[in-house]
Structures are given as structure tokens and as C-alpha cells.
Design goal:
There is one protein chain. With about 280 residues, this protein is an alpha/beta fold. It folds into two domains: about 160 residues, Rossmann fold (3-Layer(aba) Sandwich), CATH 3.40.50.720; about 55 residues. The chain has twelve helices and eight strands. It has an eight-stranded mixed sheet with strand order 3-2-1-4-5-6-7-8, with helices on both faces. Helix 4 links the parallel strand 4 and strand 5. The radius of gyration is 22 Å and the shape is globular. The two termini are about 40 Å apart.
């Protein structure tokens, strides 16, 4: 199976490196292009056998599965470039949530999927969100999910839930890291504990909590109840958090959904501004 990447920025390079390190793909099975050619060259130097392509057309020619890992504003240019040369049998995978399946199916003749990865995939963990187009068959689904199972838990979702699912799986690490960062800063400021010690304690706690919620089979409610003793210190802390954070997560989701709608509208305008109804 030969896999191509158009775009080797932050998430494109994470996917490439994770697939190689996990054994899902060999370097010689990967062809990658980038608008700045040296970025693809750098990956080829890191992983001998990986082909740094000088054009997107070369990626199409050498691959059966092609990841589009470019910014939303660059999608139309890339699609215009590859639309006339990509075979119907190819699978094109978008990793950008505001680019909808219907956008790509209207402009490309091949099979379309959307897979939203997470930075957690870098350590072969977390989820990848999978949305499949109308031309994707069961064999294609199995192929893609086997590929992603090397670096994540592939979870099929409805496209209508892409944004909120991305909030939890892809934006979530940043949101959770912010919470942990503020917890650490407060601990240092209030008690004088060395920052490195606080960071280690918080990081180990986060890892252990994640394991309890996955392999440990705890739900968040069950875990909270197990740790919190009525009238105890944890319960008092939770009472304060409930007061201070009331409604904040609702506002967070409202904010990300509002930005998502703006981005989808921009994509609509970019892709179909010249359409005549």
C-alpha cells in the first residue's frame, strides 16, 4: 500500500512519523510533497526511503491513498491541480474538519474520507475521527481503520458531530494542557513547590487518569466519586470548581462551533464562488 501526503506541516509530519514509528508504513511506501520542497526533503533525510516529491502530481502518481494536509485556504488550489489526474480508485483523505465530504465529492471523482487526527497520535494514542463519503466501500473502511489502528483508536462519527468530536479529541489536549498548566502555576505560587516537581506530579497524574478512564474502565463520574469522600478535601475542591466553572464548558463549545461555522462558510465561498445555479 503506497500512501501520499500533500502537505507536511505540523499534522502531516506527525502522521508520517507516527505511521513509520508504529510500523504501519515503511518509509519507501510514502511519497510526500510540500509547497516548501525542503520540508519534504527533510523528512526524506530523517526516514531514508521516503520519497520527497517535487509536485503534487507525483504524489498522485505514486500513491493509492492520498492525505490532504494543507490549510483550508489552500484546498481549492490543490483540488484544481489534482482533480483532472486522480484516478477514480484512489482514496483522498482530508484531515481538515471545516472541509466537508460534499465539498470534495463535488470536485473530485475519487473516493473521499475525512479523518481528523490528534496530536496524541504522535505517541500512538488517542482517537482519530473517521467520516466516510458515499463512494467508500466496506473494504476501504477496513483498510483505513487498520492503518489508523496502529496509531490511535479510529472512531467513525457522523459528519454533523465533527466539530464537537474534534473539541473532545483534537482540541481537548490543548484545553486539558491549559487546565494543567494553570493548576501547576497556582501550586507553585501558593506553596513554593518547585515547578519541575509540580509538572512531573501533574503529568503523571494525567497519564494515570487517562489509563483509569480507558483500560481501567472508569467513567468520569465513577472516578470522581471514587476519589471524592463526602466532607473531604477533594469534595471541597470540587465544590469550588462547580461554582467557578459553571457554564464555562458550554461557552467553550459555543465558541468553537461559532468559529467552525465561520470556517465552513469561508470554504463554501472559496470552493463555489464561481458556480452558476
Amino acid at each position: 500500500m503506497n500512501v501520499g501526503f500533500i502537505g507536511t506541516g505540523s499534522m502531516g509530519s506527525i502522521l508520517i512519523e507516527s505511521f513509520i514509528r508504529s510500523g504501519a508504513l515503511l518509509p519507501e511506501n510514502i511519497t510526500a510533497s510540500n509547497r516548501s520542497y525542503w520540508k519534504a526533503e527533510r523528512l526524506a533525510e530523517m526516514y531514508p526511503g521516503l520519497c520527497a516529491a517535487k509536485s503534487n502530481a507525483e504524489v498522485i502518481a505514486e500513491s493509492e491513498i492520498v492525505f490532504l494536509c494543507v490549510k483550508p485556504s489552500e484546498y481549492k488550489h490543490v483540488i484544481d491541480e489534482i482533480g483532472a489526474i486522480i484516478p477514480h480508485s484512489h482514496i483522498v483523505i482530508s484531515i481538515t474538519s471545516p472541509v466537508l465530504i460534499r465539498h470534495l465529492e463535488e470536485l473530485l471523482p475519487c473516493k473521499i474520507a475525512k479523518v481528523v487526527p490528534s496530536i496524541t497520535n504522535f505517541v500512538c494514542s488517542g482517537a482519530t475521527l473517521c467520516v466516510y463519503g458515499s463512494r467508500i466501500g466496506n473494504t476501504d473502511r477496513d483498510l483505513l481503520e487498520r492503518l489508523f489502528s496502529h496509531i490511535s483508536a479510529p472512531i467513525e462519527i457522523e459528519e454533523d458531530y465533527t466539530r464537537v468530536a474534534s473539541d473532545l479529541s483534537s482540541c481537548g489536549p490543548a484545553f486539558l494542557s491549559y487546565f494543567i498548566q494553570q493548576f501547576i502555576h497556582a501550586a507553585v505560587a501558593e506553596t513554593g513547590i518547585p515547578k519541575m516537581e509540580a509538572e512531573r506530579l501533574a503529568s503523571e497524574m494525567t497519564l494515570g487518569t487517562g489509563m483509569l478512564l480507558t483500560s481501567g474502565k472508569f467513567t468520569p463520574d465513577a472516578l470522581r466519586e471514587r476519589v471524592s469522600v463526602p466532607g473531604g478535601i477533594t469534595a471541597e475542591g470540587l465544590r469550588l470548581m462547580d461554582q467557578e466553572l459553571h457554564g464555562m464548558f458550554n461557552r467553550l463549545i459555543q465558541t468553537t462551533h461559532r468559529k467552525y461555522k465561520e470556517d465552513v462558510d469561508k470554504i463554501e465561498s472559496l470552493f463555489f464562488s464561481t458556480r452558476v445555479d
